[in-house]
Amino acid sequence: MLGSLIELLAPACSYNGPIEAFYCFREIAPGVLIITAPIFLVPGLFWLLTAKLKWEPLVISRPIPVKAKIIRMLGAVLAIFLLVFAGSAALELHRSNY
Q: Are residues 48 and 80 in the same domain?
């Protein structure tokens, strides 16, 4: 799946610098939005519907200590950084001449 996505985006993403990268993103952003919108839209609508119908929560929330919140945020930032790094490395390896 990643290979086909890279092949789909490769012609639009031939850039040589940050300005060209911005133009590349501007060209592919609507397609990415169409693909990813249902991923967020369906759970969000389900959440709104269950809140409107006053369903009982499945998990009872409890207070989270500040230290745990900081650790979770740092973990999320690190995970996002690693995903972006891995994606850019995969795209660069795909586009290289090797």
A: no
Residue type, 29: A
Task: For residue 43, give its domain range.
Answer: 1-56
pLDDT string in tens for the chain (98-residue length): 445 555 555 555 555 666 666 666 777 777 777 888 888 899 999 989 999 999 988 788 889 999 999 999 999 999 999 999 999 888 888 887 65
10 contacts: CB under 8 Å, gap ≥ 6: 94, 95
Say if CB 13 and CB 24 are below 8 A apart.
yes
Whole-model pTM over 0.90: no
Distances (CA, A) of 19 to 16, 24, 52: 8, 9, 45
